[in-house]
Write a structure and sequence with these properties.
Layout: H1 2-19, E1 21-24, E2 37-40, E3 46-49, H2 54-64, E4 73-79, E5 82-91, H3 94-103, E6 108-111, E7 116-119, H4 120-123, E8 128-136, E9 139-148, H5 150-162, E10 166-171
Antiparallel strand pairs: 1-4, 2-5, 2-6, 3-5, 4-5, 6-7, 8-9, 8-10
């Protein structure tokens, strides 16, 4: 395991210093797809002042290795003189990623295709045409179409979860997302 962590932290450090960020999957350093969005999983963030060293990254990976959810990535990026290390989850939909980031108290999500951050604060009050499907056991229970901002969507998803529903949010015009949450 120490050898794997050493290889993974070396790859992550190289990408951090060359590109300003990284997303690598345990155990083989697999990249995320070339589209979609990366968002930090709840309660996984660690900040390092300046650029994280290879040993900083290795310590973080070792501390989280046993807990990393299936399909998640180790991620890191630099912002305002700090390095943020986290466990990242890939989302197909920008809207779903932003709702998750808002609910998890994150600053932003990473747009893989455009290689840029999308800051949650910039999208909080902007309403978009959206379609929300709430369902139970693969049966559509309710579909809502309208203009919603991120706060409203996050509240809707939270209420749906309380009532035992799965809620999918996607743009009514634009990229569609159909997947279980």
């Amino acid at each position: 395991m120490a050898y794997r962590v050493s290889l993974l932290s070396a790859l992550a450090y190289k990408r951090l210093t060359e590109n300003g960020g990284f997303s690598v999957r345990n155990p083989n350093g697999e990249n995320p797809p070339d589209y979609g969005f990366m968002v930090s999983a709840p309660d996984t963030e660690n900040r390092v002042s300046g650029t994280a060293s290879r040993s900083d990254i290795a310590r973080y990976i070792l501390a989280r290795l046993a807990d990393i959810p299936n399909g998640a990535y180790f991620g890191g990026w630099q912002h305002n003189g700090e390095t943020y290390l986290d466990v990242s989850v890939w989302e197909r939909s920008e809207l779903q990623a932003l709702v998750s980031a808002f609910r998890n108290g994150q600053l932003c999500v990473w747009d893989i295709a455009r290689s840029r951050s999308i800051f949650v604060a910039d999208r909080l009050e902007n309403a978009s045409d959206c379609k929300i499907q709430d369902r139970r056991n693969r049966c559509d229970v309710r579909t809502v179409v309208g203009r919603f901002n991120l706060r409203q969507l996050a509240q809707h998803v939270q209420e749906a979860e309380r009532s035992g529903l799965v809620s999918d949010c996607h743009y009514y015009r634009g990229v569609s997302y159909h997947g279980a949450r």
